[in-house]
DNA sequence: CAAAAATAGATGATAATGCATCTAATTTTG
DNA sequence: CAAAATTAGATGCATTATCATCTATTTTTG
């Protein structure tokens, strides 16, 4: 079944908005000499899990990362001492991940750039026609309530 | 300046929604033995330019592609006879691009998968919590009207 | 108009991505 | 409980992306 005008509009707006903003984010971080967004997401997700730690497969589900990519990002983070892994004693396949102090510190430092950039980009986004298109398309498609 | 809750929510929702849907799109196309989404976008954008053709730099601006990526995608499309290039006589640096019949045919064939997938994905998107988050966040941020 | 700056597009080097597959461990099932 | 199926995570390989830089051509400017 072919998409309606509204559905197509929504997808295009979503696509463009994401591409534009994502690029701004990555460039702001790189300009600040900081690692890519992906690192932030992973560090944040692990931190959220708290002191119990979390296993990679949970991160993959939550972050919607490809398993192989997550595996490699984690290896980087671990090699750099930003994340610490301990073997699980209930499941010998799994490794429990926790953010180290150094990792938490880096995440905060990234937030110093990333946070303001979210503000800037979202203001810009909602100010231009993309938000209008997104909003109208969502409105038109929204099932019932709201 | 740090982002508000709403701004952060919007960015996260945008990010997740895009990642989810984009993956579905690419997989649907690949499953149908068709080339990646990027090809569709480029073919479509060139077709939109009509018989006058269009130059790569315009496509780059419109599609928000990296110049080097666009250059290579175009080379692929040209090599496969999907796009035809002619030198511009007003600007010897530029090449004017037009979609060939074969290119138009491929784009249509891709639309056979892509179109229905837009429908499916947008329905799914608006049915789950992502749309709610996007919508609420956009609402909260939208400057004035609407 | 000549020199400097900007623009169109290509390309080499490097890193990131996705897919398929692999090993090891765990769960399920007959 | 043994065999089959599933799951966690790593890794090789091919593709794609990004950055920086390069050439060739305009465009701008003093």
Condensed summary:
By secondary structure, the first copy, chain A, is mainly α.
Q: What is the global morphology of chain A?
A: globular
The oligomeric state is homodimer
Mean pLDDT of chain A: 89
Structural class of chain A: mainly alpha
Question: What do these coordinates show?
Answer:
Two copies of one chain form a homodimer. With 146 residues, the first copy, chain A, is mainly alpha-helical. Chain A contains six helices and three strands; from the N terminus they run H-H-E-H-H-E-E-H-H. In chain A, strand 2 and strand 3 (95-99) form a beta hairpin. Chain A is globular, with a radius of gyration of 19 Å. The interface between A and B is large, with 40 and 40 residues. Chain B binds a DNA duplex (30 and 30 nucleotides) through helix 4.
Features:
homodimer, 68% helix, 6 helices, three-stranded antiparallel β-sheet, 146 residues, DNA-binding, mainly alpha
Task: Give the secondary structure arrangement, pairings included.
The structure is a homodimer of 146-residue chains.
Chain A: H1 5-31, H2 37-48, E1 54-55, H3 56-63, H4 67-79, E2 83-87, E3 95-99, H5 101-127, H6 129-141
Antiparallel strand pairs in A: 1-3, 2-3
Helix pairs in contact in A: 1-5, 1-6, 2-5, 3-4
Chain B binds a DNA duplex (30 and 30 nucleotides) through helix 4.
């Amino acid at each position: 079944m072919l998409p309606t005008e509204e559905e197509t509009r929504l997808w295009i707006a979503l696509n463009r908005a994401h591409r534009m903003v994502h690029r701004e984010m990555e460039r702001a971080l790189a300009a600040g000499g900081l690692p890519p967004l992906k690192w932030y997401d992973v560090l944040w997700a692990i931190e959220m899990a708290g002191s119990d730690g979390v296993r990679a497969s949970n991160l993959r589900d939550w972050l919607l990362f490809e398993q192989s990519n997550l595996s490699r990002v984690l290896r980087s983070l671990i090699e750099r001492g930003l994340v610490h892994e301990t073997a699980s004693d209930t499941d010998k396949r799994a490794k429990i991940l926790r953010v180290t102090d150094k990792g938490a510190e880096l995440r905060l430092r990234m937030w110093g750039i990333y946070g303001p950039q979210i503000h800037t980009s979202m203001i810009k986004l909602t100010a231009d026609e993309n938000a209008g298109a997104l909003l109208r398309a969502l409105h038109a498609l929204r099932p019932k309530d709201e």
